Amino acid sequence: MKKDLLFKKENNLFQSLNWLAFQENYGREVVHFSNCSGISFDLPLGRKGIWIQKGPDKITKALLSEFRKASADFVRIEPKEICQSDIKDYKLRYVSEKSLLCGQKSPKATQIIDITGEEDEIQGAMKSKTRYNIRLAGKKGVTVQVTDDEDILCNLLSETAKRQKGYSPHPKEYYTKLVKDLARNDVAHIFVAYNKDLNPIAAILVSFFGEVATYLHGGFSDKDRNLMAPFLCQMEAIRYAKKKGCRYYDMWGVAETDNPSDPWAGITRFKEGFGGEKIVFPGAYDYVLNNFWYNTLTLLSKIKKVIR
User: In three state form, how does the secondary structure of 104-139 look?
Assistant: First the structure.
């Protein structure tokens, strides 16, 4: 199962020492448990939560006992597997997209591409329109370079955010530290697409950890949409991943269903065009340690939403 693949310690970037070191360098507190680690994040009124990204593998009474000793009002987990009895017995609260305490959470569904074959096999599994757009970008003079220049990425992310309602990138400092920490260990790099005039028109940040390459962030210019640069960017990242020995390419975040009104529908069509298999995880759940503060913060968030 590809779920097992993504949660294997040697493939799970978000539970790796590289990722946790970056989080600490960014100023966040990392909390270690026996078989997973979490990031402490601030909440209103001086309260705190802990987010365990892509972990744990499974929920046990011993692990929950560790959680209860943590200095936080709740622990957000993203387990590989979960059963209804666990949800009921441990009073876990599902974190929906509309959750008022949503904050930190990973996409529930993703698209995984098997890149173990030859390139003609990989492209053969893509949709014809995607293959066409990859070739078109090359014919239009688009070139892609690997770099660690976060300024290019940040500028294109900001440009994308101005067009896309509801999308808000991290502060520039986040990307600066992320690229610096991961690139120096050859764990992540930026792929920038340039037009004929050598102006950057698309950029993506991709990580390479174990058998899995993961598309983490991406932005593009609206001026040269007809050049199809994002398609070539992804293809070059896949080629790079193969050279590094990765076997799978994780598109990181697609819609769970085929509902055309889903906010993720547009980006999902783009990602699914590269082929692969959709993987749906159980999602995020909050293990509440302090009911009073959890309910109070939820109520405050609801009031703020009404006022806005």
Answer: CCCCCEEEEEECCCCHHHHHHCCCHHHHHHHHHHHH
